[in-house]
Design a protein that fits this description.
The complex is a heterodimer of chains A (about 290) and B (about 325).
Chain A lengths: L1 H32 L6 H17 L4 H24 L7 H23 L15 E3 L2 E3 L1 H23 L1 H11 L1 H6 L4 H23 L10 H15 L4 H21 L5 H15 L14
Antiparallel strand pairs in A: 1-2
Helix pairs in contact in A: 1-5, 1-6, 1-8, 1-9, 1-10, 2-3, 2-4, 2-8, 2-9, 3-8, 5-6, 5-8, 6-8, 9-10, 9-11, 10-11
Chain B lengths: L3 H16 L4 H26 L8 H18 L3 H24 L3 H21 L1 H4 L5 E2 L4 E3 L2 E3 L2 H23 L2 H11 L1 H6 L4 H27 L1 E2 L6 H14 L4 H18 L6 H15 L4 H23 L1
Antiparallel strand pairs in B: 1-4, 2-3
The chains are: A mainly alpha (about 290), B mainly alpha (about 325).
């Protein structure tokens, strides 16, 4: 029983780490531009797919991973430049549909480039299982946890300590005021999209050796990332990280002890409950009306 | 005169199979278009007029379809009783979730409706003892209307067309009723609406339940027409497609929803030639329309063409 629990915890934290990175990307874009980017999951898929293709071409592992992140960042920048910026005054419903359109478009592009095949990526460092009591974990599990922890710390540092990070925060509080003090708001928006695309790509690369990737893998991952961001309270980056971890744990424990078929349903039932009883998310301020 | 557009549309629907009998695009794709119109018109009441986004509307469509399918196939119920049972179940569920869901706004509302849709879809896939799981359920009997068997494409065209016209007529009338004006006021400004004595939450809940019931009835008809249901027809993607139909035509326009549903039903038929590019083109169209014509194709066109005619009429009056 205890071994089982430890096993579920390991899986849960690994899955949760990926959700946390995707959720973090959601939160960054939401903060900067008030847009929920439904194409966030596609960043994950593009990152993983490009890395796998580049490795297959014989490019050294490290270079391939860096290039894959760079490609995804370019996709993120293009999304901001050609879609979001063109529709600056759009309503919430319109921007939701624009980003849903973008996600379908990117999935369509992936379908043309990579087809419907299932891709697998070689792990970062070997496949020899590590024993924790009677539970086992792969080296890749450690890579996912460490990679996520490092990126979360870097993002924190970026927003709290660097001038650019602080400028983006200023934009999220008040765009007009930010531009009045000489911050280039459009550039900050671009940086936010690039950053969150990069985080998505990183999540994809980290988990690709554990799960398989297809052109439509991004859909569920994106929705889970969105759920993580909502759980943590939209627009609260560290809340999104916590929400992601919580979601991953809930899912794996639910799958283990209740039913694996209803795994995704458990996650969404919890989210509905949180929305019903704490509409502002677990760590956010309440923003809902009474009916 | 208020319903002139409706009579014109009804005449068109009635004439099409007469002019093009046995045409695949009329009697086969046409019936699918009717179902999509029914769903889009219902969703437009909620999204367009009440301003509440729903990314899970396919769930109510699915519940209606599956109640009809399961009770008729597994328990041999009469299709009409099954249809009523679907409506009762959807009425219960919609009333149960309407208040907590409609308290939410913007992205939170989007998330909640999306989550609801996904939960229902997972239940349809997982509860295979009843639903047949991912493979679906086949052998759903056809409908019999006072001894008249609805068993050919043309007969389905007549039945689905009639119900569809009823939905459109209902939607047009609701919008111009007292309730419809309240609905539009709530969308405009909830504070202003409440100072006018409008029961805001009641108005929202009623329109939510109504559009859910409309979807459920459509689902039952869909199940009997297809004779087969599978969870794929009621997935998250279909909810998105429904939202797209409403927005493509133009929010808060009944004929906009009709227009969007017709376009999105026929678009895949024509994109089939492009095979692998279908998804890419679909996504691009969605983005381009929302970026450049955020008010929707139909509403933008109607606004451009409408005044031209109005000017023409004014001129006519001045000259005489």
């Amino acid at each position: 029983m205890l071994d089982q629990l430890i096993q579920f915890l390991i899986t849960g934290i690994t899955v949760g780490a990926a959700y946390a990175l995707v959720g973090l990307g959601f939160a960054i874009i939401y903060n900067a531009s008030d847009v929920v980017n439904f194409a966030q999951g596609e960043f994950v898929m593009i990152g993983a797919m490009s890395a796998i293709s580049l490795i297959d071409m014989g490019i050294p592992y490290g270079v391939a991973l860096a290039a894959a992140v760079a490609i995804t960042v370019c996709v993120g920048l293009a999304l901001e430049k050609f879609a979001i910026e063109q529709a600056r005054d759009a309503t919430v419903v319109s921007t939701i549909i624009i980003t849903i359109g973008a996600s379908i478009f990117l999935r369509g592009m992936a379908l043309i480039v990579w087809g419907k095949d299932i891709y697998a990526m070689p792990p970062f460092s070997g496949e020899k299982p590590i024993h924790v009591g009677n539970a086992t974990m792969l080296p890749q599990n450690i890579w996912v946890m460490a990679g996520t922890a490092a990126s979360v710390l870097l993002v924190r540092y970026f927003f709290n300590r660097t001038a650019t990070g602080k400028a983006i925060l200023a934009c999220s509080y008040n765009m007009k005021a930010a531009s009045l003090v000489g911050i280039n708001v459009r550039k900050m928006l671009l940086i936010s999209y690039g950053l969150s695309a990069g985080l998505g790509a990183l999540a994809g690369i980290l988990i690709a050796p554990i799960t398989y990737i297809t052109y439509d893998s991004g859909v569920m991952l994106g929705l889970k990332g969105f759920s993580a961001a909502i759980l943590g309270g939209m627009g609260n980056p560290m809340g999104a990280v916590a929400g992601g971890m919580l979601l991953g744990l809930l899912e794996c424990i639910g799958a283990g002890f209740i039913s694996s078929g209803y795994k995704d349903a458990i996650a969404f039932v919890v989210i509905l409950m949180v929305l019903f009883f704490r509409p502002g998310g677990l760590f956010g301020s309440a923003q809902a009306e009474r009916v | 005169m208020r319903l002139a557009g409706f009579y014109l549309f009804a005449a068109l629907v009635a004439l099409l199979p007469v002019v093009f009998p046995d045409n695949y695009y009329v009697t086969v794709v046409g019936v699918t278009a009717f179902f999509n119109i029914m769903l889009a018109v219902g969703l437009n009441l909620l999204m367009g007029y009440a301003g509440q986004i729903s990314l899970g509307h396919a769930a109510f469509f699915g519940i209606g379809a599956y109640v009809s399918a399961v009770t008729t196939v597994r328990y041999g119920w009469n299709p009409w009783v099954a249809m009523a049972a679907g409506l009762v179940l959807v009425w219960l569920i919609a009333n149960l979730i309407a208040r907590p869901i409609l308290r939410l706004k913007g992205h939170y509302l989007a998330m909640a409706t999306l989550g609801f849709g996904i939960i229902i879809h997972i239940v349809l896939v997982q509860a295979d003892a009843f639903t047949g799981g991912p493979d679906g359920l086949s052998g759903i009997p056809g409908l019999v209307l006072f001894g008249w068997h609805v068993d050919s494409d043309l007969r389905w065209y007549v039945v689905a067309g009639a119900v569809m016209l009823l939905y459109v007529w209902l939607s047009l009338n609701i919008i111009d009723s007292r309730e419809g004006r309240a609905l539009r006021a709530v969308h405009g400004s909830e504070v202003a609406a409440s100072t006018l004595g409008i029961d805001i939450s009641g108005t929202k809940v009623r329109v939510f339940v109504l559009s859910a019931l409309m979807a459920s009835l459509t689902g039952s008809l869909f199940a009997h027409q297809q004779a087969f249901v599978s969870p794929d027809s009621f997935s998250f993607f279909f909810s998105i497609e429904l939202v797209t139909m409403v927005v493509l035509g133009g929010l808060a326009s009944t004929f906009g929803a009709v227009f969007g549903a017709v376009i999105l039903t026929f678009l895949p038929e024509f994109l089939v030639v492009f095979e692998d590019f279908q998804m890419l083109i679909y996504g691009a169209i969605l983005m381009l329309i929302m970026i450049f014509l955020p008010r929707g194709l139909f509403v933008t066109m109607a606004d451009r063409i409408g005044p031209m005619f109005a000017g023409y009429f004014r001129q006519g009056i001045r000259e005489t």
